[in-house]
């Protein structure tokens, strides 16, 4: 049985998710672990409280457990609140839960200070307050503003100092506890906020990348629409006018109507030819230009792209056009369907004894297609286009990751197009260009 088959479903979902989702899961569970460390740290020191009795020990453990649960829930809500910057999509501000955590903090602090003051516990149990305060600040640090957070940290330090005074802590020990608590409070609050801020930046970069891809598609559509308008706009206006004139002449019984319709026919044929030239220019891509364009688009999207051009300009025009479409469609797939960090486009022209050109595109960051998601038609169209020239297309994910010259990623996708250079008859070439 393979490792992937034996792994839990939630692990498969995390591994097969997008890069942004994996960063989110990593950040979330890291902060959860920070929030839960207070329970571990307090329970490790709890056995020192032997003189308090079993009942008191159990009650203290329950209070700390509730405090940790509230902190983890505040961390979960705080991440969502911070990522949405308190705007649309953010959860309701958990004011009651914050108050409950504050009350639990005061109960544990007062109980510890009173136990030490009455001799029911050694002074060393005050070290539990350091863990309770330092790790308990994870959730609130994401929900409070900077001014509120600094004010809250000052109040917490004052409470720690007051508890140590009530417990009769010596001056040096009091200073050490307050200084250590203050240092860890600032460190943990800063770590939680900066970590979540980094995730917010990643979300914005990912949204900008998707916007850039959509704008590139929209720009291409506008260009094609502008060309079609420039070519057909004038001719269609002339056809409409001459058709109207021919209709009026025909009602009058004038033989000039035939001449007008003849001109309409000529203009229509000319428009058809011009439209074919526009479409042919759009569909017959210059392979060398497509390779350069693919690198520019991918690098603009933050994807490292390496081009290994073995001689694109030496291939026949129809072969260049077909392979240029492979590059164009493959680039679109990388932008829309992958979270790639690297892409390699490799062209191997026919050797001295060969007649087949081979184009390979490899990228990492493969997204797992969820069940029920329909497959796209882009690759099917490429197969049909290459089949006209006697070529073939294969595409699929692979996990070797150490392919010579590859991307070096474990979850990668490869498109391989092969086209016989000398096997495309002239009538087939006309079908592709049309």
From TrEMBL:
Gene3D superfamilies: 1.20.5.1930, Histidine kinase-like ATPase, C-terminal domain. GO terms for cellular component: membrane. Residues 220-287 form the Signal transduction histidine kinase subgroup 3 dimerisation and phosphoacceptor domain. Pfam families: HisKA_3. The chain crosses the membrane at residues 29-46, 52-72, 93-113, 119-137, 149-168, 174-194. GO terms for molecular function: phosphorelay sensor kinase activity; protein dimerization activity. Keywords: Kinase, Membrane, Transferase, Transmembrane, Transmembrane helix, Two-component regulatory system. PANTHER family: NITRATE/NITRITE SENSOR PROTEIN NARX-RELATED (PTHR24421), SENSOR HISTIDINE KINASE DESK (PTHR24421:SF63). This is Two-component system, NarL family, sensor histidine kinase DesK. It comes from Streptomyces harbinensis. The lineage of its organism: Bacteria, Bacillati, Actinomycetota, Actinomycetes, Kitasatosporales.
């Amino acid at each position: 049985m393979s490792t992937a088959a034996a792994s839990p479903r939630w692990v498969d979902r995390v591994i097969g998710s997008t890069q942004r989702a994996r960063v989110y899961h990593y950040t979330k569970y890291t902060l959860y672990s920070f929030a839960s460390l207070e329970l571990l740290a307090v329970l490790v020191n709890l056995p020192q409280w032997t003189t308090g009795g079993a009942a008191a020990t159990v009650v203290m453990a329950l209070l700390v457990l509730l405090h940790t649960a509230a902190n983890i829930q505040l961390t979960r809500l705080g991440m969502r609140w911070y990522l949405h910057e308190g705007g649309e999509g953010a959860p309701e501000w958990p004011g009651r839960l914050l108050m409950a955590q504050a009350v639990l903090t005061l109960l544990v602090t007062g109980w510890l200070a009173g136990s030490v003051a009455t001799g029911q516990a050694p002074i060393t149990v005050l070290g539990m307050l350091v863990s309770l305060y330092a790790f308990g600040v994870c959730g609130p640090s994401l929900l409070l503003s900077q001014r509120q957070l600094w004010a809250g940290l000052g109040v917490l330090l004052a409470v720690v100092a007051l508890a140590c005074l009530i417990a009769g802590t010596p001056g040096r020990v009091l200073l050490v506890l307050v200084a250590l608590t203050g240092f860890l409070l600032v460190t943990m609050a800063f770590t939680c906020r900066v970590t979540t801020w980094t995730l917010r930046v990643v979300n914005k970069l990912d949204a900008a990348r998707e916007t850039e891809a959509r704008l590139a598609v929209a720009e291409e559509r506008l260009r094609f629409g502008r060309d079609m308008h420039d070519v057909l706009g004038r001719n269609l206006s002339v056809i409409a006018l001459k058709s109207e004139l021919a209709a009026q002449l025909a009602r009058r019984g004038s033989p000039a109507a035939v001449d007008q319709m003849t001109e309409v026919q000529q203009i229509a044929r000319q428009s058809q030819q011009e439209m074919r030239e526009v479409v042919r220019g759009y569909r017959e891509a210059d392979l060398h230009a497509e390779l350069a364009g693919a690198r520019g688009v991918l690098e603009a999207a933050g994807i490292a792209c390496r081009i290994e051009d073995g001689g694109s300009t030496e291939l026949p025009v129809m072969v260049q056009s077909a392979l240029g479409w492979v590059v164009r469609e493959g680039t679109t797939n990388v932008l829309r369907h992958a979270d790639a960090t690297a892409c390699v486009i490799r062209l191997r022209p026919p050797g001295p004894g060969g007649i087949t050109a081979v184009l390979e595109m490899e990228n990492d960051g493969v997204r797992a297609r969820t069940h029920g998601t329909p497959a796209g038609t882009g690759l099917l169209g490429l197969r049909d286009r290459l089949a006209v020239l006697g070529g073939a297309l294969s595409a699929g994910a692979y996990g070797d990751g150490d392919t010579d010259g590859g991307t070096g990623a474990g979850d990668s996708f490869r498109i391989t197009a092969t086209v016989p250079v000398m096997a495309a008859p002239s009538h087939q070439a006309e079908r592709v260009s049309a």
